[in-house]
Amino acid sequence: SLKxxxxxxxxxxTFLTPINMTTEYTMDxxxxxxxxxxxxxxxxxxxxxxxxxxxxxxxxxSVLRPFAGKDASEAFFGLHRIEVLRKYKNLRIGKVKGAxxxxxxxxxxxxxxxxxxxxxxxxxxxxxxxxxxxxVAVRQYVAEFREKELAPIAEMHEKNGTYPPIDxxxxxxxxxxxxxxxGPGPWxxxxxxxxxxxxxxxxxxxxxxxxxxxxxxxLLKTGTPAFTGGLGxxxxxxxxxxxxxxxxxxxxxVSKEVLTGEKRICLAISEPxxxxxxxxxxxxxKKSECGKYYIVNGAKKWIxxxxxxxxxxxxxxxxxxxxxxxxxxxIPRCEGVKTTQIPVSYSSCAGTSYVxxxxxxxxxxxxxxxxxxxxxxxxxNFNHERWGICVFVAVGMRAIYEETLKWCTQRKAFGKSLMQxxxxxxxxxxIIARVEAVTNWLENxxxxxxxxxxNEMSVKLAGPLALLKYHxxxxxxxxxxxxxxxxxxxxxTRSGMGRGVxxxxxxxxxxxxxxxxxxxxxxxxxxxxxxxxxxxxxx
Length: 539
Prior knowledge:
Structural class: alpha+beta
Largest sheet: 5 strands, mixed
Helix content: 40-55%
Strand content: 5-15%
Number of helices: 19
Low-confidence stretches: 2-11
C-alpha cells in the first residue's frame, strides 16, 4: 500500500541513507533535473532530490513540478514549517555552489529562542529580581527530557486520542518531573531520598514556584495541549490535598506511588449539578453502620485524567446543606467506581471523564482533614490550581505570539511580507503588550507565593490570583483571535503552518472555565478586595 511505501521511504531516508553535504552544484546542474522521476529542488541554498518523493507529497507531482530544477525557497517557507526540512533532511544531496549558508536557524528545540519577546525577558538578557541560573538549568533539563521522551510520540497521542502510557509516567517520576509539577515542598527532599532525580540538580530546599513554572512551560512546548494535560494535570491538582491533609501512613504510601509514576491520581469536584458552585455539590458519603466506611454515591463530571486514574480526591457531602457539610475523601478505583470518556474540545488523551460512584465503600482513614471541613481544603487547593492555569495560559500565549511573528515575517502577500503591513504590526504590538503585561503580573504573584507561608498565601492571594486568572484568560482570547486572523485559513486548519494557533483557539476556553469561570473569578477578586476596604474612607 502507499502508506507502507511511505513508511519505508521515511525509514530509508531518515536512518539508512547517509547525508552528503559536501557536494556542490551549480544552478545549471540543478535545472537539468526538472521532471517527475528526476526532480531536484533548491531550498535555502541546499539541493534536495525529490525524484521519488512526488507520489508521497500531499499535493502530488503537480505541486512540485512548477519548481522542478529551480530555487523554491520562497514558496516553500510560505507553505511549510521548518520542521519539514528537519524531517526530510536525508533528501539533501548537497548545496548550491557559492550560496550563502542557510538562512534558517538550525538551533536545537531545547535552545532558548532568539525571537524577540519569545521568552520571559530574563532568558533574553534582561535583568530580573525573580529568575536566576538555577531556573535556566531546570528549563534545559525538562526541555531535553521533552525532546527525548515526549516529542516523538506527542502528536500521535494528540491525534489518536490514546492515553499516555504508564511507563512514560514512571520515566517522569524517575526524572523528578512529577514531583516538580507540585512546586516547592517536602516532597522535593523526599524524592531525592527515594533515589529520584531533582530537575536541574537544584537543592530541594531552594526549589521554588519559578522552577515549577519552567517545568510546566517546557512540557507545554510539545504543542499538544491534551497530551500535556494527560501527563499529570490530575496530579497537579489532586495530590496536594493528600500531601497537606492526608494522615501519616496514607499520605506516605499514596504520595510515593504517585510521585514515582506507579499510580495516577485526579481531583473530582465538579458535578453535573455544581461547577463553580462547589458549596451545593450533591455527591454523598454516609457512614456505614459499623462506622468503618463511608458509602459514596453520586457523580462527577469533566474530571481531568479520570479515565486512567487510580485515585480520586473527591469532594462529598457528609453533612447538611452548604459549605459546612462538605468533606474530602481519597477514593481508590474499586468496585462501584465507573469512568466514561467525555468528548471535549481538545483530544481525549487527557482522559476527561464522567465519574460515577455507586455504593462505593471507602475506609474512614481515607478522610482528608476533618469531616465537614472539606470546603476549606477545596479553597486552599484552588490557589495553586489557578496559578497553574495562569502559567499554562501565559506560556501558550507566548508560544502563539512566536509562531505568529514567524509567520508574518516569512509569509508574503501583495508582493511583500505581512510584517511590512502597518495593520499587521499594530496587531503584533497588541499581542506583545498583552503577553508581557500578564507575564509581569504572574511573576509578581509567583514571588508572593514563594515568600508567604502556606496559610498566609491561602488567605491573601485568593483574590489577586482570581483576578489574574480572569484577566489572563481574557487576554489569551484576544491573542488567539488576532493570531487566527493573521494566519487566515491556516489558523483554522488542524495541520500545517497554523496548527498551533488552531489548537490554541480551540482549547483556550478551557482555561477560562476550569478552576472557576471568569465571572466567578472576577466577582471573587472584588469581594476579597472589599473585605479589606477601610470603613471610614470617603471620596
